[in-house]
Amino acid sequence: MRILLATAALALAVPAMADHHELPDADAFAATHAEAISGAINHPSRADDRARDQFRHPAETLAFFRVEPDMKVGEYAPGGGWYTRVLGHYLGGEGQLVGLYFDPTSGPFNEEAQQRIRAGASGFPAEAAEFTGLPAENFSAMTLDAVPEGEAGTLDRVLVVRMMHNLMRWNNADSELKKMRDLLKPGGMLGIVQHRAPADASADYANGSKGYLRQDDVIGYVEALGFELVDSSEVNANPRDPANWEGGVWMMPPSLGGDDAMDAQTRDLGESDRMTLLFRKRD
């Protein structure tokens, strides 16, 4: 965490680069792509997912990240299919969804875990096809230590949803984000949704081990790795979450990881308070 803070301070001391790329207004973007977004969000394959839309705001998040239907988009650490179904149907006509899996040689991964990561990447197209009902040919995947030749600089967007805390506590955020940056086109963008700690949370609490990170720390850290913050949103905010649970974010729904008394306290609070950040790859 000390490294994170020092890096953040360095980044904030460097003047931000001028924005030479016009970013469309999120509301106007949503209106322009309303039909495609609605078609993805309301697809029958998402029938069991919709209960969480009120907390995850997929339509608003897609629009905020300015994901266009014909883009090539990397979904980092796909799992369970929730966002894969949204993105798969949204990009299923003209775009392409790419599953981006951990570099198995980074982080706390033993040999068995490394094999599972590689198997996840190789099986992603078939799994995504099963999740969405779309052809497996619509999807591809890679582990970040084995980027296929010609893939660098081809992605329009990379989305990292509720994963930054893991990268921080596993001490591989630096290497993983650099590899994601290499995959983005010039001017390509990185979208992050992350459980948010209060600004005055202690460094020991907001180091990823509790699932929460401080927003300013995330911004400074990512900017130090060759990105510039271009927009932030409160679309996934939840002021009812104090984000100070001794057991971390896993005390909140949907995990409800406490005892009966704790679960009764958190059950009706909704999901965690989340920052939503959009960065552009620096030239």
From TrEMBL:
> What would be an example GO MF term here?
methyltransferase activity
Q: Does the keyword Signal apply?
A: yes
Question: Matching Gene3D superfamilies, A to Z?
Answer: Vaccinia Virus protein VP39
Q: Please provide the Gene Ontology terms (biological process) for this protein.
A: methylation
The signal peptide annotation in the UniProt record is 1-18
Q: Which UniProt keywords apply?
A: Methyltransferase, Signal, Transferase
The keyword Iron is annotated on this UniProt entry: no
Top-level lineage group: Bacteria
InterPro entries annotated for this entry?
Answer: S-AdoMet-dep_MeTrfase_Alr7345, SAM-dependent_MTases_sf
The identity of this protein, by name, is Methyltransferase
Per the UniProt record, the source organism is Qipengyuania profundimaris
